[in-house]
Amino acid sequence: MEIFINPEQSRWDELSSRPASSNPAVREAVVKILERVKAGGDDALRELSLEIDRRPLGEIEVSREEILGAEEKVKPEVKEAIGRALENIRAFHSAQKSAGVDIETAPGVRCIQKPVPIERVGLYIPGGTAPLFSTVLMLAIPAKIAGCGLVELCTPCGKDGAICPEVLYAASVCGVDRVFRIGGAQAIAAMAYGTRSVCRVDKIFGPGNQWVTTAKQLLSAGTVAIDMPAGPSEVMVLADSKGADPAFVASDLLSQAEHGADSQAMLVCDRADFADKVLKQLEIQKASLPREEYIEKSLSKSRCVVFSSEEQMAAFANHYAPEHLIVSTSDPWGMTERITTAGSVFVGNYTPESAGDYASGTNHTLPTCGWAHSFSGVNLDSFTRKMTIQHISREGLEGLAGTIVAMADAEGLSAHAGAVLIRTKNHDTL
Question: Cα(247)–Cα(93) distance, rounded to whole angstroms?
Answer without folding.
Answer: 33
